[in-house]
């Protein structure tokens, strides 16, 4: 694979035709002035050391050298090599509830944004771990495959909104199943699912899926977000709240019993997330307990620099140009290198 690391530098190549046009114009103008001054053959006899070919040769060499220097400055690169490193870390999938109930404001600023803040702090403490992101409501899908690119993970996380999933609800079991599939083949690294939800499961048997995760060696950590007494769900852009079919304001309550059951079935920990950092510290402590094994990770793709060859050739041409005189040299005229006899 071939590429230029600083491809914008190649725009300087447009100066080459400009220099050539200017040189041609200057040469023709000088020739016309010489012809107007006297007979060309007589003038050639009066200036025996003058050369018509040498200036053109020197200019051509300079243009080629300049072209090569511009190409070298653009840093041509060829080939690539992928390096795989073994690092100590865990693999974690975050299953984040983005149902409408996560917009309740019983924790500041609301449940979903508080969950994002918590996840951001957890990622700040990750070094050699891999992390993936699954979002769910009435359906679940992979927002970010498992990776060690925490910058991308935070970027994707910041774009999450409830309207990403049209089917509303809280299918925790489906979210856990999707998270399990994200791990792919059996890994030697310790694996964990961090489930963040208000626990209002209306769709499936989440406890059974959590048991299956535990059987596959995956620990399920549950973060309940909200308050048991609940809170109404605001409608974005208005001062109103979501109402049921009878016109009553819907109050979303944290189902701690469900969260505890899922955590227990998944062999993990349940913790409630409030406006403090207690939940973040508890989850981080639990992740630190997991036995860390070596994880193979492709850390970068490297390209081999090729600018040295272009720069060397340009340097040699400049040296040659230095030793070529614009006028004939009596000492080497007999060699007739430029065919001027």
> What strand order characterises the main sheet?
5-4-3-6-7-10
Please describe the biggest sheet, giving its number of strands, its sense, and whether it closes into a barrel: 6 strands, mixed
In the CATH hierarchy, the third-tier topology of the largest domain is known as: Rossmann fold
Shape, principal axes of CA atoms: elongated
Number of strands: 11
Low-confidence sequence ranges: none
Query: What oligomeric state do these chains adopt?
Result: single chain
Would you tell me the structural class of the helices and strands? alpha/beta
The amount of beta strand, in percent, is 15-25%
- Give the number of domains: 2
The total of helices stands at 10
Q: Notable features of this structure?
A:
341 residues; alpha/beta; six-stranded mixed sheet; 10 helices
Question: How would you describe this protein?
Answer:
The chain is an alpha/beta fold and 341 residues long. It folds into two domains: 2-79 and 302-335, no CATH class; 91-291, von Willebrand factor, type A domain (Rossmann fold, 3-Layer(aba) Sandwich). 39% of the residues lie in helices and 22% in strands. The chain is built from ten helices and eleven strands. A hairpin with a 3-residue loop joins β4 (130-136) and β5.
Topology:
Elements: E1 2-4, H1 15-37, H2 40-46, H3 53-73, E2 76-89, E3 91-97, H4 111-124, E4 130-136, E5 140-147, H5 150-158, H6 172-182, E6 191-197, H7 206-215, E7 218-225, E8 231-232, E9 251-252, H8 256-265, E10 270-273, H9 278-289, E11 293-305, H10 307-323
Helix pairs in contact: 1-3, 3-10, 4-5, 4-9, 6-7, 7-8
């Amino acid at each position: 694979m071939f590429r230029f690391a600083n491809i914008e530098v190649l725009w300087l190549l447009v100066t080459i035709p400009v220099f050539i046009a200017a040189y041609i114009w200057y040469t023709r103008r000088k020739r016309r002035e010489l012809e107007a001054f006297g007979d060309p053959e007589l003038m050639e006899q009066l200036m025996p050391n003058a050369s018509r070919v040498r200036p053109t040769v020197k200019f051509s060499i300079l243009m080629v050298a300049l072209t090569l220097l511009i190409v070298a400055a653009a840093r041509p690169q060829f080939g690539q090599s992928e390096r795989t490193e073994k690092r100590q870390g865990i693999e974690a999938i975050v299953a984040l509830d983005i149902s409408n109930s996560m917009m309740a404001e019983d924790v500041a600023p609301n449940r979903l944004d508080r969950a994002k803040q918590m996840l951001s702090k957890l990622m700040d403490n990750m070094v050699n771990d891999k992390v993936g992101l699954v979002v769910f409501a009435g359906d679940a899908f992979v927002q970010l495959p498992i990776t060690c690119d925490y910058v991308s993970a935070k970027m994707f996380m910041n774009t999450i909104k409830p309207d990403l999933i049209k089917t509303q609800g809280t299918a925790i079991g489906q979210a856990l199943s999707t998270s399990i599939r994200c791990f792919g083949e059996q890994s030697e690294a310790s694996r964990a699912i961090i489930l963040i939800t208000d626990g209002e499961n209306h769709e499936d048997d989440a406890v059974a899926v959590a048991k299956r995760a535990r059987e596959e060696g995956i620990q399920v950590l549950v973060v309940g977000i909200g308050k048991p007494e609940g809170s109404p769900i605001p409608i974005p852009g208005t001062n109103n709240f979501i109402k049921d079919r009878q016109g009553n304001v819907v109050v979303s309550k944290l189902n701690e019993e469900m969260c505890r059951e899922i955590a227990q079935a998944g062999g993990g920990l349940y913790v409630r997330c409030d406006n403090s950092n207690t939940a973040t510290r508890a989850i981080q402590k639990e992740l630190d307990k997991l036995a860390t094994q070596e994880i193979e990770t492709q850390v970068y793709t490297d390209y081999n620099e090729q600018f040295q060859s272009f720069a060397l050739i340009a340097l040699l041409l400049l040296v040659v140009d230095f030793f070529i005189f614009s006028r004939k040299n009596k000492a080497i005229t007999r060699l007739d290198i430029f065919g001027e006899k």
